[in-house]
């Protein structure tokens, strides 16, 4: 697979901060989804294309370890990678850093499964081999 941009850059908005002036912890879930959408476009699997082929990727769980805060105006870099892939389940890892300081802001992962339009679990290897091959390559590249 050609070089894939797996880093999403995002500037923090004022409305995303809390009373202390730092990003509210709940916003990181949105940041990860924004990054995941960007990343899937980069690897040729935009959500719209996947859904057109009858594939959805619901989130089963999220695990976050907050390391440092960011504030309004900061720019974060969200690096995504495949931690686990079986064809039925997918775990995406995230390293979020402050672009200016290089400080690690958060380590996280999201766990997913693959379903059809009726939200019934599917094995992507059988249901849509082209997508499965791409996820497998991303997983292999991360080993």
Question: SSE order in H/E notation?
Answer: EHHEEEEHH
Order of strands across the widest beta sheet?
1-3-4-5-2
The tally of domains stands at 1
Please identify, by name, the CATH architecture. Answer: Roll
Per CATH, the class reads: Alpha Beta
Q: Main sheet, how many strands, which sense, barrel?
A: 5 strands, antiparallel
Low-pLDDT segments: none
N-C termini distance: 15 Å
Q: What's the overall geometry? A: elongated
Radius of gyration: 16 Å
How would you portray this structure in words?
The protein has one domain: Hotdog Thioesterase (Thiol Ester Dehydrase, Chain A). 22% of the residues are buried. It is 28% helix and 31% strand. It is α+β, with helices and mostly antiparallel strands and 143 residues long. A five-stranded antiparallel β-sheet has the order 1-3-4-5-2. The mean pLDDT is 94.
Task: Note the topology.
Elements: E1 7-11, H1 27-42, H2 47-52, E2 59-66, E3 75-85, E4 89-98, E5 104-113, H3 124-127, H4 129-142
Question: What would a concise description of this structure say?
Answer:
The protein has 143 residues and is α+β, with helices and mostly antiparallel strands. The protein has a single domain (7-142), classed as Hotdog Thioesterase (Thiol Ester Dehydrase, Chain A, Roll). It is 28% helix and 31% strand.
Please give a handful of descriptors for the protein shown:
143 residues, alpha+beta, Thiol Ester Dehydrase, Chain A, 5-stranded antiparallel sheet, 5 strands, 31% strand, elongated
């Amino acid at each position: 697979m050609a070089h894939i941009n797996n880093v999403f850059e995002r500037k923090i908005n004022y409305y995303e901060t809390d009373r202390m002036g730092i990003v509210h912890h709940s916003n990181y879930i949105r940041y990860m989804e924004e990054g995941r959408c960007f990343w899937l476009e980069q690897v040729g699997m935009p959500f719209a294309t996947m859904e057109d082929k009858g594939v959805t990727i619901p989130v089963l769980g999220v695990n976050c370890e907050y390391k440092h805060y960011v504030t309004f105006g900061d720019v974060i870099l969200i690096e995504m990678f495949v931690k686990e892939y079986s064809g039925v389940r997918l775990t995406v890892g995230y390293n979020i850093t402050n672009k200016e300081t290089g400080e690690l802001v958060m380590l996280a992962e999201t766990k997913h499964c693959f379903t059809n339009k009726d939200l019934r679990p599917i094995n992507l290897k059988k249901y849509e081999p082209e997508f499965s091959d791409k996820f497998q390559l991303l997983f292999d590249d991360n080993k």
